[in-house]
Write a structure and sequence with these properties.
Elements lengths: L2 H7 L3 H5 L9 H12 L2 H12 L3 H7 L2 H13 L3 H14 L4 H13 L3 H14 L4 H13 L3 H23 L2
Length: about 170
């Protein structure tokens, strides 16, 4: 993916330019220049490493949920799940009521082998949107991976019901 395609296609240019300029998080400023001008993946990875060291309170002060969520999705899209996780964590610290963020955090954690963390992410997503068939399905798969076959079957049953209800609503006259 070309640098201009990386940054422009995903609409993060303006958001990246606003990462805490002149604040206590000033080290982000040099990283944002590289991310902005070159679509520099290494700069994003350095930003991810900085986020990984921050506390939840520090992450909340950063604000800009959309930016962190977009950067997380970009890192996940290129398969850099370890680097996506701190961006997802920054997103959930800012907006803990966003089911999509918890769900995607669960996916990234599962991809890195943290099945228990993934289960927590899926459960938090389900607590916010209980009819999310995808979250239930992934929860079932993760529970099976931990050996909880009964929990996996229950979660997959709910996933099937949620999917059936979604399809039924779409095609009902």
């Amino acid at each position: 993916m070309a640098a201009s395609e990386f940054t422009l296609e995903h609409g993060v240019l303006d958001d990246i330019a606003q990462i805490a300029p002149g604040s206590e998080y000033e080290p982000f400023e040099s990283l944002t220049t590289d991310m902005l001008t070159k679509g520099d993946i290494d700069a994003m990875k350095r930003a991810s490493a900085m986020l990984a060291r921050m506390t939840t309170a520090e992450l909340k002060r950063l604000g800009n949920y959309e930016l962190w969520f977009r950067l997380a999705r970009l890192m996940a899209k290129i398969g850099s799940y370890h680097d996506a996780i701190p961006f997802y964590r920054a997103s959930v610290a800012i907006k803990p009521d966003e089911a999509a963020t918890w769900y995607n955090l669960g996916l990234a954690l599962k991809a890195t082998g943290d099945v228990k963390g993934a289960i927590e992410g899926y459960r938090k997503a389900i607590a916010i949107t209980p009819d999310d068939a995808d979250a239930w399905c992934n929860l079932g798969v993760a529970l099976k991976a931990t050996g909880d076959v009964k929990g996996a079957i229950e979660a997959l049953y709910v996933a099937i019901e949620a999917l059936y209800n979604r399809v039924r609503c779409q095609y009902s006259p």
